[in-house]
């Protein structure tokens, strides 16, 4: 049985037309973290420092979260944009601030979380 050559292109054109009329996914706004000492926020900051330290063989210790924002991630989960303070253990006690971006789902296993960015803020 032979198919009509117009059936496939017509079907594709129809799908493209429908897709073009769908609304674009909305991008959630960033919201300030009201309590940087909240348990989840502190854990996200600790996660960022630990993962960076292990991946780059840097000896950093988490001090605290200075400020942060959260955003619902497209496809699920939450984006955390945090400024964390960290220090070198055994050093002179000085701290540095780092800008980090973490994605994760609160309450999920730690191996599902991702450190997207971690960079020192030059002062």
From TrEMBL:
Keyword tags: Protease inhibitor, Signal, Thiol protease inhibitor
Signal peptide: 1-28
A Pfam cross-reference name: SQAPI
Keyword Signal: yes
SUPFAM superfamilies in the cross-refs: Cystatin/monellin (SSF54403)
Residue ranges occupied by any Cystatin domain in the UniProt entry: 35-106
One example GO MF annotation: cysteine-type endopeptidase inhibitor activity
UniProt entry tagged with the keyword Iron-sulfur: no
Origin: domain of life: Eukaryota
Coiled coil: none
Family per similarity comment: Belongs to the cystatin family. Phytocystatin subfamily.
PANTHER family: PHLOEM FILAMENT PROTEIN
Protein name: Cystatin domain-containing protein
Protein source organism: Panicum hallii var. hallii
